[in-house]
Amino acid sequence: MALKDFVAMQERCSNCSFCKWIPFDKIKSNRFSENCPAGVWANWNTYFARGRFQMGLALVNGEFDYNSERADIARSCLDCGACDVSCKVCRYNLEPLAHNRELKHDAVEHGNVLAVQKKMLDSYAKEHTLLAGKKKEDRAKWAEKIAWAKDAEVFFFPGCKYSYDRKLAAKAKDIAEILLSAGVKLGYLGKDDACCGGRAYQMGFFDEFAKGADANIKAFKKHGVKTIVTPCSDCYHALKRLYAERGLDVEVLHVVEYLDRLIQDGTIKFTRTVNRTVTYHDPCHLGRQGEPYEAWNGTEKKILNQIHTWEPRRPRYNGRLGIYEEPRNIIKAIPGVRLVEMERIKEYAWCCGAGGGMQAVNPELSKWTASERITEANATGADTLVTACPWCESNFAGAVDENGRTINVMDIIDLVKEAL
Ligand code: SF4
Ligand code: SF4
Question: Which single residue of 3, 157, 280, 303 could bond 307 by disulfide (Cβ 3.0 to 4.6 Å)?
Fold first, then answer.
Protein backbone atom coordinates (compact mmCIF):
# COMPACT_ATOMS: atom_id res chain seq x y z
CA MET A 1 0.00 0.00 0.00
CA ALA A 2 0.97 3.63 -0.34
CA LEU A 3 -0.19 6.77 1.44
CA LYS A 4 -2.64 7.53 -1.39
CA ASP A 5 -4.42 4.24 -0.62
CA PHE A 6 -5.39 5.71 2.75
CA VAL A 7 -7.27 8.72 1.32
CA ALA A 8 -10.74 7.30 2.04
CA MET A 9 -9.65 6.68 5.63
CA GLN A 10 -7.98 10.07 5.98
CA GLU A 11 -11.18 11.75 4.78
CA ARG A 12 -13.31 9.59 7.04
CA CYS A 13 -11.55 10.65 10.25
CA SER A 14 -14.19 12.69 12.02
CA ASN A 15 -11.76 14.73 14.15
CA CYS A 16 -13.59 13.49 17.21
CA SER A 17 -10.28 13.23 19.16
CA PHE A 18 -11.15 9.94 20.85
CA CYS A 19 -7.62 8.89 19.83
CA LYS A 20 -6.16 11.32 22.39
CA TRP A 21 -7.48 9.59 25.49
CA ILE A 22 -8.12 6.10 26.76
CA PRO A 23 -11.82 5.29 26.26
CA PHE A 24 -13.83 7.63 28.47
CA ASP A 25 -15.49 4.86 30.49
CA LYS A 26 -12.02 3.55 31.45
CA ILE A 27 -10.69 6.86 32.77
CA LYS A 28 -10.08 6.79 36.52
CA SER A 29 -8.38 10.17 36.92
CA ASN A 30 -7.55 13.21 34.86
CA ARG A 31 -3.81 12.67 35.51
CA PHE A 32 -3.73 9.28 33.80
CA SER A 33 -6.42 9.76 31.16
CA GLU A 34 -4.31 10.41 28.05
CA ASN A 35 -2.99 7.68 25.79
CA CYS A 36 -0.74 9.12 23.06
CA PRO A 37 2.82 9.82 24.26
CA ALA A 38 3.79 11.61 21.04
CA GLY A 39 0.84 13.99 21.08
CA VAL A 40 0.99 14.74 24.81
CA TRP A 41 4.76 15.26 24.72
CA ALA A 42 4.58 17.63 21.75
CA ASN A 43 1.28 19.19 22.88
CA TRP A 44 0.46 19.55 19.22
CA ASN A 45 -2.49 18.10 17.30
CA THR A 46 -0.42 16.87 14.34
CA TYR A 47 1.43 14.41 16.60
CA PHE A 48 -1.82 12.64 17.48
CA ALA A 49 -3.40 10.08 15.11
CA ARG A 50 -6.04 12.63 14.13
CA GLY A 51 -3.39 15.14 13.03
CA ARG A 52 -1.44 12.41 11.26
CA PHE A 53 -4.49 11.69 9.10
CA GLN A 54 -4.70 15.40 8.25
CA MET A 55 -1.00 15.61 7.48
CA GLY A 56 -1.16 12.45 5.34
CA LEU A 57 -4.07 13.83 3.32
CA ALA A 58 -2.31 17.15 2.77
CA LEU A 59 0.80 15.28 1.54
CA VAL A 60 -1.26 13.15 -0.87
CA ASN A 61 -3.08 16.25 -2.16
CA GLY A 62 0.22 18.05 -2.69
CA GLU A 63 -0.70 20.87 -0.29
CA PHE A 64 2.80 20.67 1.13
CA ASP A 65 5.84 18.41 1.03
CA TYR A 66 8.13 17.12 3.76
CA ASN A 67 10.37 19.50 5.61
CA SER A 68 12.47 18.48 8.60
CA GLU A 69 9.64 19.25 11.06
CA ARG A 70 7.06 17.18 9.15
CA ALA A 71 9.51 14.29 8.78
CA ASP A 72 10.08 14.47 12.54
CA ILE A 73 6.35 14.33 13.18
CA ALA A 74 5.98 11.31 10.88
CA ARG A 75 8.72 9.34 12.62
CA SER A 76 7.87 10.45 16.19
CA CYS A 77 5.11 7.90 16.64
CA LEU A 78 5.95 5.15 19.11
CA ASP A 79 3.92 2.52 17.26
CA CYS A 80 2.16 1.90 20.56
CA GLY A 81 -1.28 1.52 18.96
CA ALA A 82 -3.18 3.21 21.81
CA CYS A 83 -4.84 5.59 19.33
CA ASP A 84 -6.00 2.58 17.31
CA VAL A 85 -7.78 1.04 20.30
CA SER A 86 -9.51 4.29 21.28
CA CYS A 87 -10.51 5.16 17.72
CA LYS A 88 -12.22 1.80 17.35
CA VAL A 89 -14.49 2.63 20.28
CA CYS A 90 -16.38 5.05 18.06
CA ARG A 91 -15.26 4.20 14.51
CA TYR A 92 -15.61 0.77 12.99
CA ASN A 93 -12.50 -0.21 11.09
CA LEU A 94 -10.62 3.03 10.84
CA GLU A 95 -6.93 2.05 11.13
CA PRO A 96 -4.91 4.92 12.61
CA LEU A 97 -1.93 2.70 13.46
CA ALA A 98 -1.65 1.34 9.91
CA HIS A 99 -1.83 4.91 8.67
CA ASN A 100 0.83 6.13 11.14
CA ARG A 101 3.11 3.38 9.86
CA GLU A 102 2.41 4.20 6.23
CA LEU A 103 3.16 7.87 6.93
CA LYS A 104 6.58 6.82 8.29
CA HIS A 105 7.12 4.61 5.26
CA ASP A 106 6.20 7.48 2.98
CA ALA A 107 8.63 9.80 4.79
CA VAL A 108 11.37 7.18 4.39
CA GLU A 109 10.52 6.72 0.70
CA HIS A 110 10.92 10.48 0.27
CA GLY A 111 14.45 10.30 1.64
CA ASN A 112 13.79 11.32 5.23
CA VAL A 113 16.19 8.96 6.97
CA LEU A 114 18.16 9.95 10.07
CA ALA A 115 21.85 9.05 10.30
CA VAL A 116 21.10 6.87 13.33
CA GLN A 117 18.44 4.97 11.36
CA LYS A 118 20.84 4.49 8.46
CA LYS A 119 23.35 2.92 10.85
CA MET A 120 20.67 0.58 12.21
CA LEU A 121 19.59 -0.43 8.71
CA ASP A 122 23.17 -0.95 7.53
CA SER A 123 23.71 -3.22 10.54
CA TYR A 124 20.48 -5.07 9.77
CA ALA A 125 21.62 -5.76 6.19
CA LYS A 126 25.17 -6.71 7.11
CA GLU A 127 25.05 -8.16 10.62
CA HIS A 128 21.39 -9.22 10.77
CA THR A 129 20.69 -7.07 13.84
CA LEU A 130 19.25 -3.59 14.19
CA LEU A 131 21.58 -3.02 17.14
CA ALA A 132 24.32 -1.09 15.33
CA GLY A 133 27.83 -2.07 16.38
CA LYS A 134 26.99 -5.72 17.13
CA LYS A 135 28.43 -8.58 15.08
CA LYS A 136 26.59 -11.55 13.61
CA GLU A 137 29.36 -13.91 14.75
CA ASP A 138 28.74 -12.90 18.41
CA ARG A 139 24.98 -13.43 18.36
CA ALA A 140 24.83 -17.04 19.50
CA LYS A 141 27.65 -16.86 22.07
CA TRP A 142 25.25 -16.65 25.04
CA ALA A 143 23.75 -20.00 23.99
CA GLU A 144 26.93 -22.04 23.58
CA LYS A 145 26.85 -23.88 26.91
CA ILE A 146 23.15 -24.75 26.86
CA ALA A 147 22.19 -28.38 26.26
CA TRP A 148 19.57 -27.75 23.57
CA ALA A 149 17.26 -30.63 22.66
CA LYS A 150 18.36 -32.50 19.54
CA ASP A 151 14.84 -33.38 18.32
CA ALA A 152 13.30 -30.00 19.11
CA GLU A 153 10.12 -28.69 17.59
CA VAL A 154 9.85 -25.77 20.01
CA PHE A 155 12.49 -23.17 19.20
CA PHE A 156 13.74 -20.36 21.39
CA PHE A 157 13.89 -16.99 19.64
CA PRO A 158 15.64 -14.58 22.03
CA GLY A 159 15.72 -11.45 19.88
CA CYS A 160 18.63 -9.01 19.61
CA LYS A 161 18.38 -7.45 23.07
CA TYR A 162 18.66 -10.77 24.91
CA SER A 163 21.35 -12.03 22.55
CA TYR A 164 23.79 -9.14 22.79
CA ASP A 165 23.30 -7.35 26.12
CA ARG A 166 25.50 -9.12 28.68
CA LYS A 167 23.02 -8.79 31.56
CA LEU A 168 20.06 -9.75 29.41
CA ALA A 169 21.94 -12.66 27.84
CA ALA A 170 22.22 -14.18 31.33
CA LYS A 171 18.46 -13.85 31.55
CA ALA A 172 17.98 -15.56 28.18
CA LYS A 173 20.05 -18.43 29.54
CA ASP A 174 17.86 -18.56 32.67
CA ILE A 175 14.67 -18.71 30.61
CA ALA A 176 16.02 -21.45 28.35
CA GLU A 177 17.19 -23.47 31.36
CA ILE A 178 13.87 -23.07 33.19
CA LEU A 179 12.03 -24.38 30.11
CA LEU A 180 14.50 -27.23 29.51
CA SER A 181 14.36 -28.37 33.12
CA ALA A 182 10.55 -28.29 32.91
CA GLY A 183 10.87 -30.92 30.17
CA VAL A 184 10.32 -28.70 27.13
CA LYS A 185 12.25 -30.06 24.13
CA LEU A 186 13.69 -26.68 23.35
CA GLY A 187 15.93 -25.94 20.38
CA TYR A 188 17.79 -22.91 19.10
CA LEU A 189 18.57 -21.86 15.52
CA GLY A 190 22.27 -21.27 16.25
CA LYS A 191 23.94 -19.45 13.38
CA ASP A 192 20.54 -19.12 11.64
CA ASP A 193 19.13 -17.03 14.50
CA ALA A 194 18.66 -13.40 13.39
CA CYS A 195 16.82 -10.18 14.16
CA CYS A 196 13.03 -10.30 13.73
CA GLY A 197 13.18 -6.93 11.96
CA GLY A 198 10.13 -5.60 13.82
CA ARG A 199 11.86 -2.32 14.64
CA ALA A 200 12.64 -1.73 10.96
CA TYR A 201 8.96 -2.15 10.18
CA GLN A 202 7.95 0.11 13.07
CA MET A 203 10.23 2.85 11.69
CA GLY A 204 8.73 2.60 8.19
CA PHE A 205 11.43 0.49 6.49
CA PHE A 206 8.97 -1.99 5.05
CA ASP A 207 11.15 -3.41 2.24
CA GLU A 208 14.10 -4.08 4.52
CA PHE A 209 11.78 -5.77 7.03
CA ALA A 210 10.25 -7.96 4.31
CA LYS A 211 13.68 -9.17 3.18
CA GLY A 212 14.77 -10.09 6.72
CA ALA A 213 11.42 -11.69 7.59
CA ASP A 214 11.43 -13.89 4.49
CA ALA A 215 14.97 -15.07 5.27
CA ASN A 216 13.88 -16.00 8.80
CA ILE A 217 10.79 -17.83 7.55
CA LYS A 218 13.09 -19.86 5.29
CA ALA A 219 15.33 -20.68 8.27
CA PHE A 220 12.32 -21.78 10.36
CA LYS A 221 11.29 -24.16 7.55
CA LYS A 222 14.83 -25.54 7.28
CA HIS A 223 14.87 -26.37 11.01
CA GLY A 224 11.35 -27.85 11.06
CA VAL A 225 10.10 -25.27 13.56
CA LYS A 226 6.57 -25.96 14.79
CA THR A 227 6.48 -23.61 17.78
CA ILE A 228 8.49 -20.49 18.55
CA VAL A 229 8.85 -19.15 22.07
CA THR A 230 10.27 -15.68 22.65
CA PRO A 231 10.86 -13.52 25.72
CA CYS A 232 10.72 -10.30 23.66
CA SER A 233 7.41 -8.56 23.04
CA ASP A 234 8.65 -6.88 19.88
CA CYS A 235 9.73 -10.23 18.40
CA TYR A 236 6.42 -11.71 19.50
CA HIS A 237 4.44 -9.10 17.59
CA ALA A 238 6.67 -9.34 14.54
CA LEU A 239 6.45 -13.14 14.38
CA LYS A 240 2.82 -13.52 15.36
CA ARG A 241 1.33 -10.72 13.30
CA LEU A 242 3.75 -9.42 10.68
CA TYR A 243 5.30 -12.78 9.73
CA ALA A 244 1.85 -14.42 9.69
CA GLU A 245 0.86 -11.83 7.08
CA ARG A 246 3.82 -13.09 5.03
CA GLY A 247 2.77 -16.72 5.33
CA LEU A 248 4.48 -17.99 8.50
CA ASP A 249 2.30 -20.79 9.83
CA VAL A 250 3.76 -21.85 13.19
CA GLU A 251 2.59 -21.41 16.77
CA VAL A 252 4.15 -18.27 18.28
CA LEU A 253 4.22 -17.97 22.06
CA HIS A 254 5.64 -15.41 24.42
CA VAL A 255 7.53 -16.90 27.35
CA VAL A 256 4.76 -15.76 29.72
CA GLU A 257 2.27 -17.93 27.83
CA TYR A 258 4.52 -20.96 28.08
CA LEU A 259 5.35 -20.40 31.75
CA ASP A 260 1.70 -19.87 32.62
CA ARG A 261 0.86 -23.24 31.00
CA LEU A 262 3.64 -24.97 32.95
CA ILE A 263 2.56 -23.37 36.24
CA GLN A 264 -1.11 -24.19 35.66
CA ASP A 265 -0.40 -27.87 34.93
CA GLY A 266 1.88 -28.17 37.96
CA THR A 267 5.14 -28.75 36.04
CA ILE A 268 6.68 -25.60 37.50
CA LYS A 269 6.27 -25.20 41.25
CA PHE A 270 7.36 -22.21 43.31
CA THR A 271 9.28 -23.02 46.46
CA ARG A 272 10.22 -19.60 47.82
CA THR A 273 8.23 -16.65 49.12
CA VAL A 274 8.92 -13.31 47.46
CA ASN A 275 7.95 -10.31 49.54
CA ARG A 276 7.19 -7.70 46.92
CA THR A 277 4.32 -5.43 45.99
CA VAL A 278 4.44 -5.31 42.21
CA THR A 279 2.65 -3.51 39.45
CA TYR A 280 2.68 -4.96 35.93
CA HIS A 281 3.36 -2.96 32.78
CA ASP A 282 1.67 -4.38 29.66
CA PRO A 283 4.12 -4.07 26.74
CA CYS A 284 2.25 -2.59 23.74
CA HIS A 285 3.38 -5.33 21.34
CA LEU A 286 2.40 -8.14 23.71
CA GLY A 287 -0.80 -6.53 24.94
CA ARG A 288 -2.99 -4.64 22.53
CA GLN A 289 -0.85 -5.57 19.53
CA GLY A 290 -0.40 -9.18 20.58
CA GLU A 291 -3.69 -10.28 19.05
CA PRO A 292 -3.63 -13.22 16.63
CA TYR A 293 -3.48 -12.41 12.93
CA GLU A 294 -6.63 -13.02 10.91
CA ALA A 295 -6.29 -13.28 7.16
CA TRP A 296 -8.72 -11.03 5.25
CA ASN A 297 -9.09 -10.72 1.51
CA GLY A 298 -12.26 -8.71 1.06
CA THR A 299 -13.15 -5.37 -0.45
CA GLU A 300 -14.44 -2.04 0.77
CA LYS A 301 -17.98 -1.14 -0.35
CA LYS A 302 -20.46 1.68 0.20
CA ILE A 303 -24.09 1.24 1.18
CA LEU A 304 -26.37 3.79 -0.57
CA ASN A 305 -23.16 5.50 -1.71
CA GLN A 306 -22.68 6.76 1.86
CA ILE A 307 -21.85 4.20 4.49
CA HIS A 308 -18.52 2.39 4.22
CA THR A 309 -18.58 -1.33 4.75
CA TRP A 310 -16.33 -4.28 4.06
CA GLU A 311 -17.23 -7.61 2.54
CA PRO A 312 -16.70 -10.01 4.13
CA ARG A 313 -16.49 -8.43 7.57
CA ARG A 314 -12.95 -7.26 8.37
CA PRO A 315 -11.05 -8.40 11.47
CA ARG A 316 -11.26 -5.73 14.13
CA TYR A 317 -8.02 -5.43 16.07
CA ASN A 318 -9.01 -3.45 19.14
CA GLY A 319 -6.60 -5.03 21.61
CA ARG A 320 -9.19 -7.19 23.36
CA LEU A 321 -7.40 -10.47 22.55
CA GLY A 322 -3.90 -9.43 23.62
CA ILE A 323 -1.82 -11.26 26.23
CA TYR A 324 -2.96 -9.88 29.57
CA GLU A 325 -3.95 -12.68 31.92
CA GLU A 326 -0.90 -14.96 31.54
CA PRO A 327 1.66 -12.57 33.10
CA ARG A 328 -0.84 -11.67 35.83
CA ASN A 329 -1.49 -15.38 36.51
CA ILE A 330 2.25 -15.92 36.93
CA ILE A 331 2.63 -12.97 39.30
CA LYS A 332 -0.39 -14.06 41.38
CA ALA A 333 0.93 -17.63 41.60
CA ILE A 334 4.17 -16.54 43.31
CA PRO A 335 3.90 -16.87 47.10
CA GLY A 336 4.18 -13.53 48.89
CA VAL A 337 3.78 -11.30 45.83
CA ARG A 338 1.00 -8.71 45.91
CA LEU A 339 -0.18 -7.28 42.57
CA VAL A 340 -1.49 -3.72 42.46
CA GLU A 341 -2.67 -2.33 39.14
CA MET A 342 -1.96 1.00 37.51
CA GLU A 343 -4.83 3.06 36.13
CA ARG A 344 -4.03 2.46 32.44
CA ILE A 345 -3.66 -1.27 31.94
CA LYS A 346 -4.13 -4.00 29.34
CA GLU A 347 -5.25 -2.56 25.97
CA TYR A 348 -5.31 0.92 27.52
CA ALA A 349 -1.75 0.79 28.89
CA TRP A 350 0.60 3.76 28.45
CA CYS A 351 3.68 2.92 26.32
CA CYS A 352 7.13 2.45 27.91
CA GLY A 353 8.64 4.87 25.39
CA ALA A 354 10.86 2.45 23.48
CA GLY A 355 8.40 1.56 20.69
CA GLY A 356 8.97 2.62 17.08
CA GLY A 357 12.74 2.76 17.62
CA MET A 358 12.18 5.91 19.71
CA GLN A 359 15.27 5.43 21.90
CA ALA A 360 17.28 6.18 18.75
CA VAL A 361 14.87 8.37 16.79
CA ASN A 362 13.73 10.78 19.52
CA PRO A 363 15.44 10.01 22.85
CA GLU A 364 13.81 12.96 24.61
CA LEU A 365 10.30 11.73 23.77
CA SER A 366 11.33 8.18 24.67
CA LYS A 367 12.62 9.18 28.13
CA TRP A 368 9.67 11.44 28.90
CA THR A 369 7.24 8.61 28.02
CA ALA A 370 9.04 6.26 30.42
CA SER A 371 8.98 8.90 33.15
CA GLU A 372 5.21 9.23 32.79
CA ARG A 373 4.82 5.48 33.31
CA ILE A 374 7.10 5.52 36.36
CA THR A 375 4.90 8.28 37.81
CA GLU A 376 1.85 6.07 37.26
CA ALA A 377 3.61 3.01 38.72
CA ASN A 378 4.70 4.94 41.82
CA ALA A 379 1.13 6.17 42.33
CA THR A 380 0.10 2.55 43.03
CA GLY A 381 2.43 2.27 46.01
CA ALA A 382 4.19 -0.73 44.45
CA ASP A 383 7.87 -1.27 45.19
CA THR A 384 8.56 -3.09 41.91
CA LEU A 385 7.56 -2.50 38.30
CA VAL A 386 7.46 -5.80 36.41
CA THR A 387 7.35 -6.15 32.65
CA ALA A 388 7.77 -8.83 29.99
CA CYS A 389 9.88 -7.10 27.38
CA PRO A 390 13.58 -6.19 27.33
CA TRP A 391 12.84 -2.90 25.53
CA CYS A 392 10.43 -1.80 28.27
CA GLU A 393 12.86 -2.90 30.96
CA SER A 394 15.76 -1.01 29.40
CA ASN A 395 13.70 2.12 28.88
CA PHE A 396 12.39 2.13 32.44
CA ALA A 397 15.80 1.43 33.98
CA GLY A 398 17.10 4.67 35.46
CA ALA A 399 13.97 6.64 34.52
CA VAL A 400 12.48 8.78 37.26
CA ASP A 401 8.95 10.02 37.87
CA GLU A 402 7.80 13.65 37.88
CA ASN A 403 9.07 13.99 41.46
CA GLY A 404 12.49 12.53 40.70
CA ARG A 405 11.69 9.17 42.31
CA THR A 406 12.63 5.88 40.69
CA ILE A 407 11.24 2.36 41.13
CA ASN A 408 12.79 -1.10 41.08
CA VAL A 409 12.28 -2.50 37.54
CA MET A 410 12.20 -6.26 36.90
CA ASP A 411 11.68 -8.67 34.04
CA ILE A 412 8.98 -11.21 34.94
CA ILE A 413 11.61 -13.94 34.40
CA ASP A 414 13.66 -12.54 37.28
CA LEU A 415 10.59 -12.59 39.48
CA VAL A 416 9.94 -16.24 38.55
CA LYS A 417 13.57 -17.08 39.24
CA GLU A 418 13.37 -15.51 42.71
CA ALA A 419 10.50 -17.85 43.57
CA LEU A 420 11.89 -21.14 42.17
S1 SF4 B 1 -10.51 8.76 17.13
FE2 SF4 B 1 -10.29 8.10 14.98
S3 SF4 B 1 -11.93 9.23 13.91
FE4 SF4 B 1 -11.66 10.27 15.89
S5 SF4 B 1 -10.13 11.89 15.48
FE6 SF4 B 1 -8.97 10.11 16.17
S7 SF4 B 1 -8.37 9.03 14.29
FE8 SF4 B 1 -10.05 10.45 13.75
S1 SF4 C 1 0.65 4.81 17.90
FE2 SF4 C 1 0.88 5.68 19.97
S3 SF4 C 1 2.39 7.36 19.75
FE4 SF4 C 1 1.65 6.83 17.68
S5 SF4 C 1 -0.03 8.29 17.31
FE6 SF4 C 1 -0.94 6.39 18.13
S7 SF4 C 1 -1.08 6.71 20.35
FE8 SF4 C 1 0.32 8.26 19.52
Answer: 303
At residue 351 the predicted structure's pLDDT band, cuts being 50, 70 and 90, is: very high
Domain assignment of residue 303, yes or no: no
Domain that holds residue 139: 115-264
Ligand nearest the Cα of residue 14 is 1
Q: Judge whether 300 lies within some domain.
A: no
The reported pLDDT for the residue numbered 142 is 95
Same domain, yes or no: 277 and 389: yes
Total tally of structural domains belonging to the chain: 3
Residues 22 and 87 in one domain: yes
pLDDT value of position 398:
87
The reported pTM is 0.96
Distance 84 CA to ligand 1 centre (A): 9
Q: Which of 147-151, 306-310, 358-362, 410-414 has the lowest mean pLDDT?
A: 306-310
Residue 92 scores a pLDDT above 80 = no
Q: Which residue has the higher pLDDT, 304 or 172?
A: 172
User: Does residue 83's CB lie within 6 angstroms of at least one atom of ligand 2?
Assistant: yes
Amino acid found at 293: Y
Q: Strand locations in 33-174, DSSP E?
A: 154-156
Ligand 2 pocket residue status of 79, Cβ below 6 Å: yes
Asked if 279 and 415 sit in the same domain, the reply is yes
Within a domain: residue 283? yes
Torsion angles phi and psi, residue 278, rounded to 5: -115, 155
Long-range contacts of residues 129-135, Cβ cutoff 8 Å, at least 24 apart: 129/160, 129/163, 129/164, 129/194, 129/195, 130/160, 130/195, 130/197, 130/199, 130/200, 130/357, 131/160, 131/161, 131/164, 131/195, 134/160, 134/164
87 close to 53: Cβ distance less than 8 angstroms: no
CATH number for the domain spanning 133: value is 3.40.50
Ligand 1 centre and the CA of 90: distance in Å? 8
Q: Which residues, 6 or more positions from 16, have their beta carbon under 8 angstroms from its beta carbon?
A: 50, 90, 91
Name the domain boundary from 62, 94, 112: 112
What whole-number distance in Å separates Cα of residue 38 and Cα of residue 46?
10
Give the end of a domain, one of 78, 112, 146.
Answer: 112
pLDDT at 300: 85
**185 within a domain of the structure (yes/no):** yes
277 and 398 part of one domain:
yes
